[in-house]
Write a structure and sequence with these properties.
Elements (H helix, E strand, L loop, with lengths): L1 E3 L2 H15 L1 E3 L3 E2 L2 E2 L8 E12 L4 H8 L3 H11 L17 H8 L9 H5 L7 E2 L2 E2 L15 H10 L7 E3 L17 E2 L3 E4 L2 E4 L8 E3 L5 E12 L2 E7 L6 E4 L3 E5 L16 E4 L8 E5 L11 H13 E6 L6 E10 H6 L1 H13 L4 E4 L8 E7 L1 H11 L10 H4 L3 H15 E3 L5 E6 L2 H13 L4 E6 L5 E3 L4 E3 L5 E7 L11 H15 E2 L2 E13 L3 E8 L4 E4 L2 E4 L4 E7 L2 E12 H26 L1 H4 L3 E15 L11
Parallel strand pairs: 1-5, 35-36
Antiparallel strand pairs: 2-5, 3-4, 5-36, 6-7, 8-34, 9-31, 10-11, 12-13, 13-31, 14-15, 14-30, 16-17, 16-18, 18-30, 19-20, 20-22, 21-22, 23-24, 24-28, 25-28, 26-27, 29-30, 32-33, 34-35
Helix pairs in contact: 2-15, 3-15, 6-15, 7-9, 7-12
């Protein structure tokens, strides 16, 4: 992110970014007026522009650097901190661009929303002429609305909280009634959490999700809305699981450049792009966990974990309602005995725990018949249960394994593929299939993190079938997932040795991986109309992004995030849309003034802990920064 020490440098840099990198767009509406087919309303737009700037301790100095519309901005700021949900705010008549725009785009009627309403939402529609008319307060889906005053109280109570967020985007803005935007995903969309991938409708507040920073962050809020408009279906290479999203949801991508990522002239330029603006052959970006944590496990023990994930289960002590895990069982076959995998399990247990195992063999002399290995150790059984769970469908690969060192993760992969791997008929690929999407998705995360090429397939639920060996009809309850490792050439089950992986990793990483990012090419995009369906979104702490299948997406949160560290109060402002000539300077100035106001209010309530606290960094993330195309040459005067 670009960082500055003065806001006049921000203005100069932003103007140059707009001039050099903007492109022509034709939006359907502007200020409520239809403009799609009118050439005079062509706009230039730059997407996903971000910067940080150190704020001066004097708001007058900041004002001199920014040069906003002072008379209007200072008056309007007082409306924003008035404690009243003003609509319309009186200052709108004195906004420099109001007279022309109001006459052309709809007059001086009540606005769909205002900043004073969003900052003080408790009495929206319950106040008039500066007076509150009702003691009843507005509420959200679950809780009463908070306001800027509540945020001040929170920071006085917990000065270093991460929860001081002032939202500007409200649930009703999702547009199901008044035709505006709905940035969400359909039911069933898989989101990467610290407990594996979960359907988005099953995500809860407090869950940890992977963000574009390659780290876990907490879900602060979940959203659900009803939606009946276009759905964009995106399919990427290396998986048959489609992504179905509303038109406005931003994806982190690199545009198609008609050359492979391995080409010397390929430019790794990331940008956030709405789903409806994606194109086939663009590259979506998937962020994987970048940080590594030291774990207490040896390579042998990690390989044993892999065997358990593939072929293990737990036996419980059910006496007196205890129901605690006591024994780890590995369900192997005679083929595994021939390959030496059973001896490997026995030797690991003897080496790590200095204990023997109990083996029970089937009486049939058949490669597919079971050989069961029982390891009775209450502490180890509990450890296995706490880490991975039990049951084919419910096992997971937890956060600490996802973050483990690469060479330890290789050992986990070796154990798993020995237990659950099989050759494809062409003898070039190895497949691993499981009803546990969390295991398969966890293995895929490990592969992405280590530059190992794999493809993911969701296998539809099978119809009931007759099993000759069991002499009964089997009714499958779950769909299954398949991970395919593509290597080329004949392979043994032990292709996951360190040397092979490192060699393959170098090739794959050079082409499709940079830092903690992996690229996936978009194979197809399809738009369909839908009848009313539920759609979902998340608000994520700090980073405001999360991972879905093959993609990193923005959570579309708009608002101000205040955070105090030491004697500095920083603010991060997430804004959806900003007109460079009409709003940009004012938006920065009003954002800075909020920081000064917040510090002043906290000093009044707790002078001892807030004396000497100063404004810190102001960071802005702008999804769409735009201007009229006819104004482009005016930008050159600013840099």
């Amino acid at each position: 992110m670009k960082k500055f020490g003065r806001f006049n440098d921000v203005i100069r840099w932003t103007a140059q970014q707009m001039y050099d990198y903007s492109y022509i767009v034709h939006t359907e509406k502007w200020q409520g007026k239809e403009i799609k087919h009118d050439s005079k309303y062509a706009m230039i737009e730059t997407l996903n522009l971000s910067f940080s700037c150190q704020m001066d301790e004097d708001i007058k100095v900041i004002g001199e650097q920014i040069k906003p519309n002072f008379d209007w901005a200072d008056e309007h700021f007082e409306e924003r901190v008035s404690g009243l949900p003003l609509n319309p705010p009186p200052s709108h008549e004195r906004w420099p661009y109001a007279q022309k725009n109001n006459s052309e785009f709809g007059g001086n009627s009540r606005f769909s929303h205002t900043y004073p309403e969003r900052i003080w939402p408790k009495y929206i529609n319950l106040a008039k002429d500066g007076m509150v008319l009702s003691k009843i307060k507005n509420s959200g889906f679950r809780y009463q609305y908070g306001d800027f005053g509540d945020l001040v109280d929170l920071m006085v109570k917990e000065p270093f909280t991460r929860q001081a967020f002032l939202p500007i985007w409200f649930p009703e803005d999702t547009g199901t009634v008044h035709g505006e935007r709905v940035p969400c995903f359909v039911e069933g969309t898989l989101v990467q959490t610290s407990e594996g991938y979960k359907e988005i409708e099953k995500i809860n507040e407090g869950d940890l999700v992977v963000t574009h920073m390659g780290r876990f962050r907490k879900v602060q809020k979940t959203f659900i809305s009803n939606y009946s408009d276009r759905i964009i279906e995106i399919k990427t290479l290396n998986t048959n699981i489609p992504i179905r999203t509303t038109t406005d949801h931003p994806f982190l991508i690199i545009r198609n450049q008609n050359k492979l990522p391995s080409h010397k002239d390929f430019i790794w330029k990331e940008e956030w792009v709405k789903a409806e603006d994606l194109k086939e052959d663009d590259y979506v970006i998937h962020t994987f966990i970048g940080e590594t944590e030291n774990v207490e496990y040896s390579g042998d023990l990690m390989r044993l974990f892999g065997y358990y994930l593939a072929e293990g289960d737990l036996m419980f002590d059910k006496r007196r309602g205890n129901n605690k895990p006591k024994t780890v069982r590995f369900n192997m076959s005679r083929k595994d005995l021939k390959e030496g995998y059973i001896d490997d399990i026995i030797n690991i247990i003897k080496k790590e725990f200095n204990k023997e195992v109990y083996i029970k063999e089937s009486s049939k002399n058949d490669d597919k018949e079971n050989i069961r290995i029982y390891f009775h150790d209450v502490n180890f059984a509990k450890k296995i249960y706490d880490l991975f769970g039990t049951g084919s469908y419910d096992k997971i690969i937890p956060e600490e394994i996802i973050k483990a060192d690469s060479k330890l993760q290789y050992q986990l992969l070796i154990g798993y593929t020995r237990g659950d791997g099989s050759f494809e008929k062409n003898k070039k690929n190895i497949e691993c299939t499981s009803v546990s999407k969390s295991i398969i998705m966890g293995l895929r995360t490990i592969c992405l993190r280590n530059g190992i090429h794999s493809s993911l397939t969701k296998i539809p639920l099978r119809k009931p079938y007759f099993n000759k060996r069991l002499n009964r009809i089997i009714k499958p309850n779950y769909s299954s997932f398949k991970l395919t490792f593509s290597q080329g050439g004949r392979l043994s089950y032990d292709f996951f040795n360190v040397e092979n992986i490192e060699n393959k990793r170098k090739i794959y990483k050079e082409e499709y991986i940079k830092n903690n990012r992996t690229l996936f090419k978009i194979e197809s995009i399809r738009s369909t109309e839908t009848e009313e369906i539920p759609v979902y979104n998340l608000q994520v702490e700090e980073d405001n992004t999360y991972n879905i299948i093959n993609c990193t997406v923005h959570n579309c949160t708009i608002g101000y995030h205040f955070i105090r560290r030491g004697d500095w109060v920083h603010v991060v402002y997430y804004i959806r849309s900003c007109d460079f000539f009409r709003h940009f300077r004012d938006d920065i100035y009003l954002c800075a003034k909020k920081v000064f106001w917040l510090i002043d209010q906290c000093k009044k309530k707790d002078p001892e802990n807030w004396e000497g606290v100063k404004p810190g960094m102001l960071t802005m993330h702008i999804t769409s920064l735009h201007a009229w195309a006819s104004e482009k040459e005016m930008l050159k005067k600013l840099f």
